[in-house]
Amino acid sequence: MIKKLVVLSLGILVLGGIVVNTKLGSYVSTTYRRAAGTVEESVPLEFQIDRARNMVRDLEPEIRRSMHVIAKEEVEVAELDRRLAQAETNAEQDKSEIMRLQSDLKTGDRVFRYAGHTYSKDEVKEDLARRFNRYKSVDSTIDSMRQMRDARQRNLDAAREKLTAMMGAQRQLQVDVENLEAKLKLVQVAEASSDFQFDDSQLARAKQLMTDIRTRLDVAAKLANADTNFQEEIQLDEANSEDVTEQVADYFGLEGSDKAEAVAKAETPVHTASYAD
């Protein structure tokens, strides 16, 4: 059984090496990429847009988790600031008492009285030493607290910036998804319009009918006007009968003797000569 597994493993390794190091490997990889690309292109755009919308919506839990972490860190940093401020106040009080004991010891007195109790110089020195050691320890702790507070504040600021950027990116992605969906609808409308075959024969017939109706109405109007203008009327005055010779003379601008001659010629009868055969 073990031998069979070893042989099968070696066979797989050899076949894998052949596939990778020969033309067969390029064929396989090219075929895989083309198949993957074909599958992705065959997915409807509506599905892809819904998928993008869901991916943007899936960012919401991460954003809420980040908001919870930031809120918790803000509370802890605020508490650290409070503790640091209290420690600094206590350290200032300790420093003031240390400086008082130091000043009293410099007077050279052998006995000191504090709060109704008397202490020797050595007792005061021992107390000063204890206070000083404790102060140095507290001062070191305060310094560490400051460093920790500063580091956590920097991390908090960075987290806030990251959260702000994430929320801005999510809003932008939401807008992009809406724009893609609107663009898809416009493309679908354009495709539907291009696929629809409009029958313009009915439109042409309707236009022709309107033209015919308009023509008939124009003709009817002209006929109505003609009937009105050319209707027989009663003649009130006699017709003016002018001599044709006068009309000719006036037309050709004849005056004086020319006019009389033209009138005489007009009145002279014309005789036709006859010839005997």
Architecture overview:
By secondary structure, this protein is mostly helical. It has a domain at 58-171: Helix Hairpins. Helices cover 82% and strands 3% of the residues. The protein has eight helices and two strands; from the N terminus they run ααααββαααα. The chain has a two-stranded antiparallel sheet. Helix 1 packs across helix 2 (23-42), helix 3 packs antiparallel against helix 5 (121-195) and helix 4 (59-105) runs antiparallel to helix 5 (121-195). It is elongated. The N and C termini lie far apart (155 Å). Mean pLDDT is 77; it is low at 270-277.
Sheet with the most strands: spatial strand order: 1-2
Task: Describe the main β-sheet briefly.
Answer: 2 strands, antiparallel
Count of DSSP-assigned helices:
8
- CA gyration radius, whole angstroms: 60 Å
Q: Which architecture of the domain at 58-171 does the CATH hierarchy give at level 2?
A: Orthogonal Bundle
Helix content: over 70%
- What's the mean pLDDT score? 77
Give me the count of strands.
2
CATH topology of the domain at 58-171: Helix Hairpins
Please write the CATH class name of the domain at 58-171: Mainly Alpha
Shape field: elongated
Distinctive features:
single chain; 277 residues; mainly alpha; Helix Hairpins; two-stranded antiparallel ribbon; 8 helices; 3% strand; disordered C terminus
